[in-house]
Amino acid sequence: MTDSTAGTEARQTPVHRPARRRSAPPVRSLWSRITEYRAAYVFILPSIILLALFMVVPLVHSIVMSFHNWNGITAPEYIGMANYERLFSERRFGQAIQNNLIFLVLFTSCTLVLGFLSAVAISRRMRFWRFYRFAFFVPYVLVTAVIAVLWGQIYEPSHGILNTALRAVGLDSLTQLWLGNHRITMYSIVAIAIWQISGFTMLLYLAAMEGIDQEIHDAATIDGVNAWQRCIYIIAPMVKQITFVLIMLQIIASLKTFDLIWVLTKGGPFYASEVMGTYLYRAAFEQQQFGYASAVALVMTVIVMAVTIVYLALTNLPNKK
Amino acid sequence: MTRAIGLSFAYFGLFIWSAMVFLPLLFMFVSSFKTHGEILQFPIGLPSRLHIENYVNAMVNSTIGVSFVNSVIVTIGSLVFVVALSLMGGYALSRFQFPGNKVLLLGLVALLTLPVHALVVPVYYFMDMFNLRNDNFGLIMLYTAFHLPVSIIIMRAYFQSLPRAVEEAAQLDGCGTWGVFWYVAIPLSKASIATVAIINVVGIWSEYLFASVLMTSPASRTLPVAVATLGTGEGGTDLGLRFAGLSLATIPILILYLFFSRRIMKGIAAGAVK
């Protein structure tokens, strides 16, 4: 679009148009109103095209293909609900959901508690608070794949530093196959996720706590509350809103988790750390079952969307002025 | 007395957490100067001498250098498109009550709830069909689309909060729609442009899933895909090389964070709740 055409267009169209659509009678046809706002459509059109091409069309395609037997090469064959029936009877998918739930509970609770406590320490200006604020957020900005490879080396059983350090201080009995033991691999992975994301929860808590009126703290100090009471009875209730927001964000992140686990264990050993994300990836790109993978993807989408809608209702995002 | 004990517990906790953040990174940087044998023999401890050759190897003999360039191109390209399109889209949605405005906004919110991970199968299929695999431009368009919904909504919210008086004045002075947008609205949006860029940059720079299925040829891999396989495949395992690659992927972000940490934290805090 050139400047001159936009200019002529705009002279007929004031930027500021009072919203009188309800009170004013519809004198003009829809088409004339559409042409009148041509500039606005030109502004929004590229976004609409991209979103349609890369999100809406794939989503629709995914829905259609979830009812087909399809390997991505030969023609898809309609099989009705068979993919979904298989999905809900497959034990490994149940296990994946179970792992997602373990991840969800531990990840959400630990990141919230750690984030809350460190934010209290920083907002109460404990010594070196600037350093803590800087340091705790560092893992969040690192590339997840890098974190996964790095922690893979830390957990490595023979020369990884975790086991080496344990042996060095004589705690040989505590050394583990951190990722190789199917009983603990999920917990080892969640620990990394907590390590990575706690700085983020700290940051949001901190933003909320900085908003608390200093007078409230002063009054509490005069009343002689101790630090613990201050956390539970004063700070926690005042950051309730952000707690809800964070719970929702962490639940969504837990349901979507993929990179960390895929790079570390590929869902192993023997599917012990399989989650919905890795299950979907395996079905699609290792077993070439695109139709079945689409069904998995849709189940995942429905679960995540349901949680997200609750989240959006809580934060009232679209109506924020 | 109890207060002193409580306080020292708190400081102890803060100290432990700081150590837990930095020790893995320290381990990574120290190991990146060791040889493969040194890492196996003395996992903890300093290298015999600084083995810079790990870095040379990573940059020259592996594809990390190429991947680094790819990642920079893809990240900057996506950010430019996301910022430009979300400025335009957010402005249109905020300033014009055109037919379809509300529907579009609702559509954006709906897309916001969509977990893009679930689109990996059809996206792979279509990108393959249109020869956009192993193509930086394809990946840029994909990332732009994925980050548009939240960015447009943030931009719209920003313009909603911005008084229209300046724009109206410019209009009275004979500025057209494009002129008002270009000379008035954009210069006033520097803060929200920074917010949109900041909240998206980490996600784009780190994106692994789509990059790993779309960018499969060694010359087109992005950094997350390349580091995930570095030092394991061709020519056997080389841990020194591996750690050098990890460090190379980490250093630029750490430098950026070092200089802009306040701004980055502000942007992310603002973007997550607004």
TrEMBL record, chain A:
Q: Which UniProt keywords apply?
A: Cell membrane, Membrane, Transmembrane, Transmembrane helix, Transport
Q: Where is this region: Disordered?
A: 1-21
Q: Where is the composition biased (Polar residues)?
A: 1-11
Q: Where are the transmembrane segments?
A: 39-60, 101-122, 134-154, 184-207, 242-264, 290-314
Q: Where is this protein primarily located? A: membrane
Q: Which SUPFAM superfamilies does the UniProt record give?
A: MalF N-terminal region-like (SSF160964), MetI-like (SSF161098)
Q: What is this protein called?
A: Sugar ABC transporter permease
Q: What is the species listed in this Swiss-Prot or TrEMBL entry?
A: Roseinatronobacter alkalisoli
Q: What is the lineage of its organism?
A: Bacteria, Pseudomonadati, Pseudomonadota, Alphaproteobacteria, Rhodobacterales
UniProtKB/TrEMBL annotation, chain B:
Please report the name of this protein according to its UniProt entry.
sn-glycerol-3-phosphate transport system permease protein UgpE
The family this protein is said to belong to: Belongs to the binding-protein-dependent transport system permease family.
The record's InterPro entries line, in alphabetical order, gives: MetI-like, MetI-like_sf
Kindly give the Pfam families that the UniProt entry links to this protein: BPD_transp_1
Q: Which residues form the ABC transmembrane type-1 domain?
A: 68-260
* Membrane topology type: Multi-pass membrane protein
Task of the protein = Part of the ABC transporter complex UgpBAEC involved in sn-glycerol-3-phosphate (G3P) import. Probably responsible for the translocation of the substrate across the membrane.
> What SUPFAM superfamilies does the record tag this protein with?
MetI-like
Q: Any idea where this protein resides?
A: Cell inner membrane; Cell membrane
Q: How does it assemble?
A: The complex is composed of two ATP-binding proteins (UgpC), two transmembrane proteins (UgpA and UgpE) and a solute-binding protein (UgpB).
TM spans, by residue?
9-30, 68-91, 103-125, 137-159, 180-205, 239-260
- Sorted UniProt keywords: Cell inner membrane, Cell membrane, Membrane, Transmembrane, Transmembrane helix, Transport
Organism lineage reads as: Bacteria, Pseudomonadati, Pseudomonadota, Alphaproteobacteria, Rhodobacterales
Q: Which superkingdom does the taxonomy of this entry point to?
A: Bacteria
